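cache lookup: miss for this entity combination. No prior model stored, computing from scratch. Input as submitted by user K.M.:
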Amino acid sequence: GTLFDDLGGMEKIQNVASRTLDLALKDELTRENFRFANMKNIKEKLSLMLCEVADGPCVYDGAPMKELHDPMDITTSQFNAVVESLQQAMREEKIPFSVQNRLIARLAPLHSDIVTVR
Ligand code: HEM
């Protein structure tokens, strides 16, 4: 089976994406960035990205990660904060720890496109 199946399929992924962004909107380290963002749109695009990266039946159709995040001058601490929001969201959805880690591992390479400041 795919990581997509192990995560519990599309509905679970949509819940995770939605909750991750709600948490990021509350987190002191990241809330300013998301303050004026179209959360409904980001939730949809993040769902597609997570689905695709987990070998699910989706094609990400959003903006390239670097282009999108580069102007925000994002730090490693902020990147880690979003990853922690994602981990909390997966925990709340009762996704097994080992499955959580497989998804995180596939997102780790995005670090170099997203973080442009130390
Ligand atoms: C694993 C890390 C991350 C992933 C996978 C990710 C993914 C995404 C995706 C898929 C979108 C929507 C793209 C689109 O609308 O076409 C997005 C938008 C956005 N991301 Fe991230 N992101 C990450 C980290 C971060 C961090 C650390 C911040 C800032 C603290 C951040 C701030 C934003 C903001 C503000 C938007 C909305 C931009 C806009 O609509 O103009 N992201 N991200």
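stored under new cache key. The chain has eight helices and two strands.
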